[in-house]
Amino acid sequence: MGRKWNNIKEKKASKDANTSRIYAKFGREIYVAAKQGEPDPESNQTLKFVLERAKTYNVPKAIIDRAIEKAKGGSDENYDELRYEGFGPNGAMVIVDALSNNVNRTAAEVRSAFNKNGGSMGVNGSVAYMFDETAVIGLEGKTEEEVLEILLEADVDARDVIQEDETIIVYAEPDQFHAVQQAFQAHGISEFAVAEISMLAQNDVTLDADAQAQFEKMIDAIEDLEDVQQVYHNVDLGK
Question: N or C: which end of the chain has fewer CB within 10 A?
Fold first, then answer.
């Protein structure tokens, strides 16, 4: 599972390099979550999850508050949650999640980003079956043994616990996301290197230098689209 965490780190590093883009995407996601339920994270688990993930990306409180206030104000702005699946070079698989107020525009833009960079769109289900929805929580300052003891004490199940460099990564079922966090918070841990529910590939592929360069260009083009919120793939970018 180590290479999957490398892919998440690569994604975070890429997005952190463009803070205005990541802040705009989180603003939209927070607004949608707040509008779909109560604008209070204590009673809206979807909003709570988004806010916890936003914290790991250092999204400013002003942006969070503005998005929630917009939802409270009864804005008539509506977004559809969309998922696209596609392919890159040499067995690369990609999942694209988007929030759109114009489905036709978003579909055309995502398709164009694939086609112009050596990829192709697939039909629904052509890729997703090769990925597992997984809660991923990373923290520093603890050993693998200490983390396992905390989870055991809280009676929380995890798929896997591994150490990479100074980071301990916990992989768990999506419905265990908050239970894992609460187990750590009970031990005074409130800062996480990563805290998100991701789509992790069952098997990663490694591309040669030319194919990887083309693939990364395609991913950049997709992530640059205003409506795209998340991009998942099965390419090992950790080398």
Answer: C
Domain count, the chain: 3
User: Which runs of E-coded beta strand occur in 2-105?
Assistant: 80-87, 93-100
d(CA 174, CA 178): 9
pTM, full prediction: 0.89
pLDDT of residue 165: 80
How far is 99 from 163, CA to CA, in rounded Å? 34
Q: At 239, is the pLDDT very low, low, confident or very high (cuts 50, 70, 90)?
A: low
> Does one domain contain both 10 and 61?
yes
Dist CA 195 CA 28 (whole Å): 19
Residue-wise burial string across 101-139, b where 16 or more C-beta atoms lie within 10 A, e elsewhere: eeeeebbebbeebbeebebebbeeeebbeebbebbbbbb
Range of the structural domain that residue 92 is part of: 80-129+202-233
State the helix-helix crossing angle for 2-16 and 209-223, rounded to 10 degrees: 50
Residue 62, both tokens: 């002003």
The backbone region for 99, taken as left when phi is positive above 0, alpha when psi lies in -120 to 50, beta otherwise, is: beta
The enclosing domain of 32 has a CATH number of 1.10.10.200
> Dihedral angle at the C-alpha atoms of 9, 12, 17, 18, nearest 10 degrees?
160
